[in-house]
Amino acid sequence: MLALDYLFAGLALGAVAALSGVGMLVTYRATGVFNMAHGAVAMLSAYLYWQLSAGWGVPEWAAAIAVLLVFAPAFGAVVERVVFRPLQRRFASPAESLVATIGMLVLLLGVAHIVWGDQARHPASLFPNDVIHPGGLTVHVEAFADLGAVIVGTLGLGLLLRLTPLGTQIRAVVDRRDLAELSGVNADRVAAIGWALGSVFAALTGILLASQLSLDPFNLTLVVLETFAMPVIAGLTNIPIAVAAGIALGIGSSEMNLFSPSPGPVLDIWNALHANLPVVLLLLALLARQRLAQSGGGDAGIATTFAQRRAAEPSIPMMALQYGLAAVALFAPLLLDPVHLREAQEVPALAIIFVSLVAVTGYSGQISLGQAGYAGLGALFFAKVSGSTPELVALLVGVLVAGIVGFATGYPAIRRRGLFLALTTFAVGTFVSRFVFQQPYFTNGVTVRRPSLFGWSLAGDHAFYLFELAMLAIAFLIMYNLRSGALGRSLIAIRDNEDGARAVGVDVRSLKVLIFTVSAMLAGLGGALLAQQKVAFDPTNDFDPLGNSLPWFTVVVVFGADSAAAAVAGAGLVVLVNAVVGQAGAYLIIVGLLASFLGRLPGGVAEVNRRVIEWVQTPRALIRRYAAHAAPRPEPVLSERGRAALERLRAARAERS
Predict the structure, then answer these.
(1) Alpha carbon of 105 to those of 108, 210, 224, 554: distances in Å?
(2) What is the pLDDT of residues 555-599, one digit of tens each?
């Protein structure tokens, strides 16, 4: 009897998980874009529902109708028109569209954080939350209402996709947009409808979920992100399988309450598994699958389109000016007062983490959304080991541990690229966050101290900042060696065309593992420095997969995925904006806006810099080009046979004229 009670109790969560998975599949099947911002749209819709009903006194049913039938479809159509249509028009890679959705996610998180703050809200339930007891069972009416909403929505969607011309047009646009347009299909209208439908499903997910959980920007968004397991299990194609997986997840999570181990390590592991079952399911589903049905193929060349370097290289005076300004900017904090100097110490640590993303994404075209996990591991193991060993040795241990995890992640990355790889790295980072950083066994009693060098303490702010700059210089030296020589050419070949690189003999397998290992080690170094800067290990605020990994990746892409110098500039912007505004997530709105409009400017800030340099040097280039064209051209030296052929050609032209 108790098992049945738990089964009925799990229907509510399972129905919402299924609804979220269906919404992501709808958007993906209609547009070819995997919407990483699905959870943020759900969160924003839930906040609007709460604002209308609890804040302004609108009846719950009217607030739900306004959000579901007015705001959600309008929001989806606007997003398609403003953000994704420019990407589709220039046939951008799936990786670019993925980054645009992450930018939208970051933007919506920033908006919600500023407008509503971090205080938890409790919206009223959309359906009656009565409890009935048929035959002695405990049944929540809301659970069956949620399940009914899933069934009705899924059946209606299935009929739309299979029995209407719109369904045929959707499949045609996703498979080959160019051919669909040649056959007369209005691809823009189809994509707008797909985004509108996906937003409606996201809004309904947020409204139903917010009544079961406390509503705050990061919590609800992350819960919805964890339902990525549903579309992954469905192979990004099968909606009924996604629904079944969601319901099974909810019921299985509820039934786990029947088993309660005795207090001890087993109980701690069981509780962690119970609380993070969606994350475990997502990781297992990704590791078990050999491939995903990715629209447009598994293009790994994110840096190829985002940061194509211009043919014109900066002149020596221009390079001297740029490096001089960079040196002044990096050493200027040494002149600041102690308070501002401590804030500036975050820049080199973040810069090293961002540079690690440039290594894996910009230099080899692999998308990594789990960098906060590597950084957190470096910080955690540095903190745990530094109590019994010299701090520099502990720093090396933290870097090596992060590298080992990166090495293990590199093996699944061998056969993954594009969206598949992005989801895998996100799942790994989330798994590390939930099962390592949030477990008291690993984090209790952890203390962080700043290192000493040859008996010289680096606890002082000026000394520690100089030590950070030295570590940043080492990171740049590593990046230089990755980019130059045969290794650099091989990595660029993988970035531009992985299949082509493999065809000409590049050892893609080994290089993928290498670049993931080096990137993780750099991230571990940056994470350890970040913990030393704050003299504390704070996984919630510093190494969260949603609050840090995704925004960090977005910053790197916005500033130039293949530019280590641009990564340092991005770190400076993050710290500067947060310090000026006085809020930790203030930079999210700026970065989210820039990322959402990358379709109009591939390459981001680094590309703007290159275009400015090219524009400044254009007069010289034009003069050289004019001089080359104005100079008399010598007559070509031809053989007797060549001269005879040329005479015949001239005679033929004269005869035709």
Answers:
(1) 5, 18, 12, 10
(2) 988 888 888 888 999 999 999 988 888 777 778 888 888 888 776
Place of tokens 């002082």: 460
Q: Is 92 left (phi over 0), alpha (psi -120 to 50) or beta?
A: beta
Q: Which two tokens stand for residue 130?
A: 């009565």
Query: Distance between alpha carbon 251 and the CA centroid of its chain, in Å?
Result: 30
Q: Name every residue whose Cβ is closer than 8 Å to that of residue 487 and which is 6 or more positions away in sequence.
A: 481, 511
Cα–Cα distance for residue pair 25/225, rounded to 1 Å: 13
Determine the distance from the C-alpha atom of residue 627 to the mean position of all C-alpha atoms in its chain, rounded to a whole number: 48
> Which tokens sit at 61?
């049913």
d(CA 413, CA 407) in angstroms, rounded, equals: 10
3-state helix, strand, coil in the chain (%, to 5): 75, 0, 25
Per-residue pLDDT, 152: 83
Q: State the Cα torsion 524-529-530-531 to the nearest 10°.
A: 90
CB 530 within 8 A of CB 349: yes
Work out the angle at residue 127's Cα, subtended by the Cα atoms of residues 125 and 129, and round it to the nearest 5 degrees.
75
**Which two structure tokens, joined as six digits, stand for 363?**
């230099």
Residue type at 84? F
Whether 374 shows a pLDDT value over 90: the answer reads yes
Strand partners, 457: 452
pLDDT at 304 over 50: no
Nearest alpha-carbon partner for 67 in 151, 146, 123? 123
Task: State the burial class of residue 325 (Cβ atoms within 10 Å of its Cβ: 0-12, 13-18, 19+).
Answer: exposed
Tokens of 521: 């080690």
- What 3-state DSSP class applies to 78? helix
CATH numbers and ranges of domains, the chain: 2-117+149-255 (no CATH), 302-609 (1.10.3470)
Give the 3-state secondary structure of residue 176.
Answer: coil
Torsion sign, CA atoms 402, 405, 407, 409: negative
Instruction: Report the Cα 21 to chain-centroid distance in Å.
Output: 18
Looking at residue 312, what is its pLDDT? 43
Tell me how far apart the alpha carbons of residues 33 and 174 are, in angstroms, rounded to a whole number: 9
Residue type, 232: V
Provide the token pair at 132: 């009935």
Phi-psi label, residue 127: left if phi above 0, alpha if psi -120 to 50, beta otherwise: beta
- 136: which 2 tokens? 């002695």
* Cα first-last separation, the chain: 99
Residue pair 349/362 in contact by the 8 Å Cβ criterion: no
| pTM score over 0.85 | no
Which DSSP string do the residues of 456-471 spell out, in sequence order?
Answer: EE--SHHHHHHHHHHH
Contact 332, 471 (CB under 8 A): no
